[in-house]
C-alpha cells in the first residue's frame, strides 16, 4: 500500500519524483499514464496523494482526476498536477475536478516537500 | 561565451585559390557567416560530411574527383538541392545557371551579400525570442542531466535538411503567432554514459535505448512547455483549431533526410554538455526550430511582455 502515486509517461520524471519522495520517507507507487493511474487508484484505497502529469497518452491527467472524483467517487485522495502546462483554463478545469495544487515543471523538490507532507499527513 | 545578438549561418567554401578563399572568409566573418573550408579533401563526400549548412560557395575553377564546371554544379545541386549555391566567377553555362542562387567576383562582393540575403537570411527571428528559447532549453537540459556544464554555439540558420546523430525527437509548437516544430537530435552512447555515471534521474543500470529516448523526450517536453508558457499569448484564440492546416513531414532514412515542406531556413542551436569534472564524454544536442505552418514574429513583442512574469516553475500553487 503506497501513500503517494506518481503518474507520468516520462520514466525520467517518475524516477526523479518517486526517488525524491522515497528519500523523504514516503511510500510511492508509479503509473505510466492516466489510465494506469486510474486503475491503480481503484486498486489502492489507501492512497493519500496523487502527483500527476497533464499531457500523457491514452488518458491525460485532468481526465484522470475527473474520473477519480466522478466514476470512482473518491473524494478523499488529494491530487497535485506536475506539468509543463500553465494555461489558466487548464488550472480552472483542474480546480473543478478537485485538484489541490499545480506545479509547473521543472520540478524543484525541496520547494514542495513541506506541502506534500501537509497533504499526506 | 554565446553571442546571440546575431544569428549566423555556415557556408562551405570550395575554392583552390587560397588568396580568394581568404578574401571570402573575411567577407563571411563580417557578415555573420561561419566559413567552412574543407582541408585537402579529394572526394565529394565533403558535401555529406558537412551538415547544418546554409549554403555553398564554389569557385568556377574548382574541380574535385572528375567534376568541374557544369558537371560539378549539377552534382552539387543533385547531392544537396536544398542548399543555395553561389559561384565565384562566372557560371559555366546557362544550364548550370538554373542551379545557382548567385554569382560574384572578388571585386564586387556586394553581389554575394545580396544573393545571401535573398536566399539565406530570409526569416526574422527576434533576439529576445532567441534568448528565451536558449534559456528555457538550458534549464530543461540541466533539469535532466545533473552536474553538467553546457557550451552553446551562437544560433545559426540552416538550409540543409540532413538528420544528425541517432536519436531524434519532434514536437509541434503552436500559438496564435507561430506554428511549426522543434526537433532535438543527439547520439546514443554519450547519453548511456551519463546514465551509467548517475548523472540523470534514470537508474544507473537502465541503459536500454528506451531510457535514453526517455531523457531526450523529457528535455523536449520541458522545452515545449517552457516555450508555450513564455511565448504563447494569454488570450490565445483556439476557435480555429479544428480548421488549421497541416502539411506532411517526410523522412528518408536512407539519405538521413527530413522535410517539413518548406525551404525557409531553420533556426538551429548546438549545445555541448560536459560533466563538471570531464568524467564522461560530452553530449552534443542539435536543436532546430521549423516554423513551417505560420510565422508572425511581429506579434512576438506583445505576448512576450504579457506573459514574461506569469509563469514561475517549480513552486506549488495551492488551489
Describe this structure in words.
The complex is a heterodimer of chains A (121) and B (319). By secondary structure, chain A is α/β, with parallel strands linked by helices. Chain A has one domain: Rossmann fold. Chain A is built from five helices and five strands. Chain A has helices at 11-23, 34-43, 61-69, 88-96, 109-120, and strands at 4-7, 28-31, 49-52, 78-83, 101-104. In chain A, helix 2 (34-43) runs parallel beside helix 3. The longest helix of chain A has 13 residues, at 11-23. Chain A is globular and about 30 Å long. By secondary structure, chain B is α/β, with parallel strands linked by helices. Chain B has two domains: 8-119, Rossmann fold (3-Layer(aba) Sandwich); 127-235 and 242-313, Chemotaxis protein chec. In chain B, the strands form three sheets. In chain B, strands 1, 2, 3, 6, 7, 8, 9, 10, 11, 14 and 15 form an eleven-stranded mixed sheet that branches. Classes of the chains: A alpha/beta (121), B alpha/beta (319). Chain A binds chain B through residues 10-13, 15-16, 19, 55, 80, 83-86, 88, 91, 94-95, 99-108, 111-112, 115, and chain B through 139-140, 143-144, 200-203, 206, 210-211, 214-215, 217-218, 221-222, 224-226, 228-229, 234, 310-319. Strand 5 of chain A pairs antiparallel with strand 16 of chain B.
Amino acid at each position: 500500500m503506497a501513500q503517494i502515486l506518481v503518474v507520468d509517461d516520462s520514466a525520467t520524471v517518475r524516477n526523479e519524483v518517486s526517488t525524491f519522495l522515497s528519500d523523504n520517507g514516503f511510500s510511492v507507487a508509479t503509473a505510466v499514464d492516466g489510465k494506469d493511474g486510474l486503475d491503480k487508484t481503484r486498486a489502492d484505497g489507501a492512497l493519500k496523494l496523487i502527483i500527476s502529469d497533464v499531457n500523457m497518452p491514452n488518458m491525460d491527467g485532468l481526465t484522470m482526476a475527473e474520473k477519480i472524483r466522478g466514476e470512482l467517487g473518491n473524494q478523499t485522495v488529494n491530487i497535485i498536477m506536475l506539468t509543463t502546462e500553465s494555461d489558466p483554463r487548464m488550472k480552472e478545469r483542474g480546480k473543478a475536478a478537485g485538484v489541490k495544487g499545480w506545479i509547473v515543471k521543472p520540478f524543484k523538490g525541496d520547494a514542495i516537500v513541506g506541502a506534500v507532507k501537509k497533504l499526506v499527513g | 561565451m554565446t553571442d546571440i545578438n546575431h544569428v549566423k549561418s555556415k557556408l562551405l567554401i570550395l575554392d583552390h585559390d587560397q588568396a580568394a578563399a581568404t578574401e571570402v572568409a573575411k567577407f563571411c566573418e563580417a557578415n555573420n557567416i561561419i566559413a567552412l573550408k574543407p582541408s585537402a579533401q579529394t572526394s565529394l563526400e565533403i558535401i555529406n560530411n558537412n551538415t547544418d549548412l546554409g549554403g555553398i560557395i564554389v569557385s568556377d575553377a574548382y574541380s574535385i574527383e572528375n567534376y568541374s564546371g557544369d558537371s560539378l554544379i549539377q552534382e552539387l545541386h543533385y547531392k544537396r538541392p536544398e542548399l543555395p549555391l553561389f559561384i565565384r566567377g562566372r557560371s559555366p553555362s546557362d544550364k548550370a545557371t538554373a542551379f545557382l542562387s548567385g554569382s560574384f567576383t572578388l571585386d564586387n562582393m556586394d553581389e554575394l551579400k545580396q544573393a545571401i540575403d535573398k536566399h539565406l537570411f530570409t526569416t526574422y527571428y527576434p533576439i529576445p525570442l532567441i534568448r528565451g528559447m536558449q534559456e528555457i532549453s538550458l534549464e530543461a537540459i540541466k533539469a535532466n542531466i545533473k552536474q553538467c556544464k553546457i557550451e552553446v554555439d551562437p544560433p545559426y540558420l540552416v538550409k540543409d535538411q540532413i538528420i544528425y546523430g541517432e536519436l531524434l525527437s519532434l514536437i509541434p509548437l503552436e500559438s496564435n503567432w507561430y506554428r511549426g516544430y522543434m526537433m532535438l537530435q543527439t547520439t546514443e552512447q554519450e547519453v548511456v554514459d551519463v546514465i551509467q555515471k548517475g548523472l540523470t534521474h534514470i537508474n544507473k543500470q537502465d541503459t536500454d535505448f528506451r531510457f535514453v529516448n526517455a531523457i531526450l523526450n523529457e528535455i523536449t517536453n520541458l522545452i515545449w512547455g517552457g516555450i508555450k508558457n513564455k511565448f504563447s499569448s494569454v488570450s490565445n484564440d483556439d476557435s480555429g483549431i479544428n480548421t488549421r492546416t497541416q502539411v506532411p513531414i517526410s523522412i528518408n532514412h536512407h539519405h538521413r533526410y527530413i522535410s517539413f515542406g518548406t525551404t525557409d531556413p531553420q533556426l538551429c542551436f548546438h549545445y555541448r554538455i560536459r560533466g563538471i569534472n570531464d568524467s564522461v564524454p560530452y553530449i552534443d544536442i542539435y536543436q532546430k526550430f521549423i516554423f513551417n505552418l505560420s510565422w508572425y514574429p511581429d506579434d512576438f513583442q506583445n505576448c512576450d511582455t504579457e506573459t514574461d512574469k506569469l509563469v514561475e516553475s517549480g513552486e506549488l500553487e495551492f488551489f
